Amino acid sequence: MENIATTPKDEQRLAKFEEWVQSGEAIEPRDWMPEAYRKHLIRQISQHAHSEVIGMQPEGNWVTRAPSLRAKQILLAKIQDEGGHGLYLYSAAETLGITRDEMIEQLHAGKAKYSNIFNYPTLNWADIGAIGWLVDGAAIVNQVSLQRTSFAPYSRAMVRICKEESFHQRQGYEIMAKMMAGTEAQREMAQDAMNRWWWPSLMMFGPHDGDSPHSADAFRWKIKRQTNDELRQKFIDKTVPQAELIGLTVPDPDMKWNEEKQSYDHGRINWEEFYRVINGHGPCNKQRMDHHKKVHADGAWVREAAEAYRAKMK
Ligand code: 3HC
Q: Could you report the per-residue pLDDT of 158-214, keeping only the tens digit for each?
């Protein structure tokens, strides 16, 4: 990263900041921090928050069509959790000096991303199982690591979110296990969902380490504690046995256990698809953004009413 200090005083403060972070200490919003650190965090945390909220759309699609009251209750609880995760993360980002409105404007203007994974359609109930098991499973691997991130409000949000995420992963796996123990049609449905969600879930961890422009700074400032590839491998090694246990086939002919590495080798990820999707050209990008813009506009009266009430109570 280019030298960001401009005056001797800045040099001293930067040296102190780097020493503090390298010693594993947490940074609170009131602490001095380099502008590049603040901007890096705003980018990552706001995109994380957008992902949580946009992720409610594909799942919300199945609330009215859940196969039982119990399944509906579980799905409603999960979606409500995701909305709460978004709120924790927007609040953590706001401590860095950006407003909620600014973050939403960046999202709507295409200047901020959200996770690739939420740009795929949920075609049937097995997709809800695959999302809980694979997507939340991948999110847990990433978020457990982020519990040790150097920015304290982000770390605290991760601790809280991880507690709820593990319930999401288990409810998804339960759906897949039930379907794999069901009729031939249900087994085919579950395998089809596995085939469609497996590779985009691997992409959730971001590009390979050598192609990740932000990772160098993320490690220098201990925002990230493990690399994209390390976390992806951790997810694969944990998830493949779970798939095999219930009779699902991982849709990767190159997936095989490497005795020497004590982990799985896997096939090439389709990075062309990854960059196509994160640059706005996935199956559901337009649908997701149109819906978010509509609902944000429809909800303006709630925000205005809350503002008016706050002004009145001052
Ligand atoms: N989806 C969309 N964009 C992605 C991406 C993904 N899966 N992975 C990487 N990118 C983008 C980055 O944002 C960056 O673009 P930008 O400069 O416009 O921000 C570019 O690709 C280069 O990637 P890098 O690896 O250099 O970027 P990072 O160092 O930020 O690493 C990350 C990417 C690993 C996703 C990191 O940002 C991160 O850990 N974020 C927090 C976790 C997160 O956002 N999870 C989203 C899922 S939330 C979820 O699943 C909810 C669950 O409850 C259902």
A: 999 999 899 999 999 999 999 999 999 999 999 999 999 999 999 999 999 999 999
Span from the CA of 45 to the centroid of ligand 1 (angstroms): 9
> What separation in Å is there between the alpha carbon of 69 and the centre of ligand 1?
34
55 lines ligand 1 (CB under 6 A): yes
- For ligand 1, whether the C-beta of 179 sits within 6 Å is no
Distance 39 CA to ligand 1 centre (A): 15
Best probe residue, ligand 1, of 80, 231, 278 (max atoms within 8 Å of C-beta) = 278
At residue 144's C-alpha, the angle toward residues 105 and 151, to 5°, is 55
278 alpha carbon – ligand 1 mean position (Å): 10
Does the pTM exceed 0.90?
Answer: yes
DSSP state string for the chain? ------SHHHHHHHHHHHHHHHTTPPBPTTS---HHHHHHHHHHHHHHHHHHHHTHHHHHTTSTT-SSHHHHHHHHHHHHHHHHHHHHHHHHHHTTT--HHHHHHHHHTTSS---GGGGS---SHHHHHHIIIIIHHHHHHHHHHHTT-SBHHHHHHHHHHHHHHHHHHHHHHHHHHHHHTS-HHHHHHHHHHHHHHHHHHHHTT-S-GGG-TTHHHHHHTTS-SS-HHHHHHHHHHHHHHHHHHTTPPPS-TT-EEETTTTEEE-----HHHHHHIIIIISSSHHHHHHHHHHHHHHTHHHHHHHHHHHHHH-
- Which residue minimizes the CA distance to atom 11 of ligand 1? 206
**Nearest CA residue ID for atom 36, ligand 1:** 44
The residue whose CA is least distant from atom 22 of ligand 1 is 212
Whole-number Å distance between alpha carbons of 110 and 274:
16
